[in-house]
C-alpha cells in the first residue's frame, strides 16, 4: 500500500513538473519585443521562441540550476530525508502563491516562490520531525548565494542595459542624423534583435530549473532512474515549447501591441543584457527571476534615455518581490505541517 | 527668390520616386502654391486685381498635388518602413492641410475686391506677407531635411517659431489700426480686411504648429549621447 501511494506520488510530481514547464513557457514574454518590432510572423516567432526555450531547458538539464533547486540547497544531514511529500508541499504552496500573484496582477517570480517553499518545508520538518539540526539543514553558502543573486541580478541588468545604451548612443546611435538613416539602422537591428531574443530564450529555458529541479530531486532519491530523468526532461522542454505556442501568445500579443513604438535597437539592448545576466546566473547554478531582470533592464533603459520611471508601480512590485520568499515559506511550511499531521511525511 | 512655378512631372517619373522624394515633391508643390497665394495678396495690396485673381484662381485650380498624394499613399502602405510609417503619413497630412487652408483663403478673397485704406496699412500687410513667405520657405526646407538631418530641421523650425512670434505682434497692430479707422469706412471692406488678416494668422499658425510637430519628431527619433 505504501509503495502504491509512493508510486502515485511520483506520478503526481512528474505531472506537476511537466505542468510547471508548461507554465514557464506560458508566462514567458521575451518574444513580445520581437513581435512588436514586426521582425517575424507571429506563429514563426512562437515556434522559434518555443524551440529556443526547450533547447535551453534540455541542454542544461544535466545540473546547473536544476541541481541547485533539487539538491544543492539542502544540507548534508537532510539530503536523504527529503521526501516526496515535502516536494509536493513545496510545489503546491508555490503554485498557490503564484495564482494569488496572478489575480493581484503582480508578476511574481516562480523561482523565489519555489526556493521560499523549500526553505519553509525544511524548517517545519526540522521542528516537527526532530533529528535535524537547522544549522546543518541547508547548504547556507548556496542559499546565501541564491538570495544574494536575486538582488544582484536585477541591479546588474539595470547597470548593463544603462552602460550598453550609453556606449551605443555615444559611438553609434547619436550619430544617426535623419529619419532615413535611423530607419535603415533599425532594420539591421531587427535581425540583431532576433538573435538576442533566441539567445535570451535559451538562457530563460536554462535558468528555469524549477521543473527539472523536481525531476532531479526524484532522481537523487532513486524514485526515477537517469534514463527516465532525461526522458521526462525532454517532456518538460516539449511542454515549455507548447506553453509558449498555445498559452503565451495572448500575453505576447498584448505586450507587443504596446511595443510598436519601441525601437529594435532598444529591444536588442534590453534582451542582450537580460540574456547576459541569465547566462552568468545559469553557469553559476543560481536560479534567478527572469521577470525581475527584464523589468530592471527596462528601467535601466529608461534612466539612460532620461525617461520617466513608474516608481509607484515599481514599489508595489518590490513589496511583492520581498514578501514572496517568506510567504511561500510560510505557506509550504503550513501545508507540510497539515500533511505530516495526517501521517504523510 | 524661389521659383514659384510648378513643374509637371510625368506619371512614369512619379512612379520611380521614393517615399522621401514624393514627400519633398509634395512639399515643393504645396509651397509653390502657397507662395503664389502670398504673391496674389501682394497684387491685391497693389490693387492689381487682374494678377491677384489670376494667382488665386491658380491656387484653386491646380491639382498637381493630387497625383503625388495618390502615388505616395499607394507606396507608403506597401512599404516595409517600420516605425516611421505613421509619422510620415501624419507629416503628409499636415502638408496637405496647408493646401486646404490656402484654397479656403483664395476662395474667400475672390469674393470681393477691397481697396486698402492707406499706405501705412499696405506697408504693414506687406511686412506680414514677407514674414509668411519666410516661414513657408523655412518649413519647406525643414520638411526636406527630416530624412537626412533631423537636428537641422529642428533648428529651422525654431526659426519659424521665432518669426511667427514677431508676425503675431505685427498682426495685432494691423488689426488695431483697422478697428480705429473712421466710422464712415465701408463695413464690407472692414470685414474683408479683418478676415484677410485673420486668415493670414490661421495659415501662419498652421505652419507654426507643423514646425512644432517636426521638432517633436526630432526629439522622438534622435538619440543624444
Annotated CATH architecture of chain B: Up-down Bundle
Radius of gyration of CA atoms of chain B, rounded to a whole number: 19 Å
Tally the helices of chain A: what do you get?
A: 14
Terminal-residue CA separation of chain B: 39 Å
Note the overall shape of chain A.
elongated
Q: Which sheet architecture does the biggest sheet of chain B show?
A: none
Q: How many E strands of chain A? A: 0
Distance between the termini of chain A: 15 Å
Mean pLDDT of chain A: 86
Low-confidence stretches of chain B: none
Number of domains of chain B: 1
Average residue pLDDT of chain B: 90
Name the helicity range of chain A: over 70%
Give the proportion of residues in helices of chain B. over 70%
User: How large is the share of residues in beta strands of chain B?
Assistant: under 5%
Largest sheet of chain A: none
Oligomer: heterodimer
| Low-confidence spans of chain A | none
CATH superfamily of chain B: Phosphate transport system protein phou homolog 2, domain 2
Broad shape of chain B? globular
What amount of the residues of chain A lies in strands?
under 5%
